[in-house]
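B., you asked whether I could sanity-check this one before it goes into the benchmark set. Here's the sequence:
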Amino acid sequence: MKKSYKVAIAAVAAVIGLASQGAYAQSAGDLLLGINNNDSGGTADLVVDLGTFANLNAHQNTAFSLGVNNTTLASDLGGTGGPASYNVGIVGAKSVPTGTSSLFVSVKDNGTGTASAQGSTTPPSLSQANYGSALGNVFPAVVTGNNTTFTVNIAKDPTTVGTGDSSFSANTGINPLANVGGNSVVLDLYREQSAGTPGSWSYLGDILVNFSTDTYTFDPVAAPVPEPATYGVIAGAGLLMLALRRQFVRKNA
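And here's what the prediction gave me:
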């Protein structure tokens, strides 16, 4: 195989690879992972942007880096005890005034579930007023980075509502925080959508947060459907490969 052909194939692979990567700048609809150590003297949260659910769903069973190691995390959170004493939870929100809004929340998997069968109790449906308040509690109130916005606006620990005047857990009766209790924890992810009137929560799959490897991995309830942009990249790469192959065959005929 000629060198030029090998280079072309490598370029195509790079294009496909770039489509599956992402450094996430926070925006509406992103899933936000909150981590704190409030039960063991912690003084701050770390909020990690996991990107959109669509992107996470398109890359099932892929371990993504949390972007922080245990030494840095311990310093960011404060307190003692390490990962076993940490609390983690996921929220996400996108408000669409004239369309369908989405609200995401995690509930700790009790250990009996799998990706195809939830291991937690489905959260209670929300009233329209509480749904609207919850959207505002998440975005833009919760900010990525080392701060206290998760503790204030979402929840302080698994049994205590947020410290703000009107927090997500106080408004909804749903507390997304779960104690890790070891080096990893599995969270069931739910979504409730509303086009004026909130529907019921849908179970989407589970997310493993692993502090031994400093990663998170999503295992969906069903096989993911590629986003339109992904189809476009795959189709474009396929056409490029076909054209290169024809050119290579003509040159060697």
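One thing to flag: Confidence is low (pLDDT under 50) at residues 2-22, 224-231. Otherwise nothing jumped out at me.
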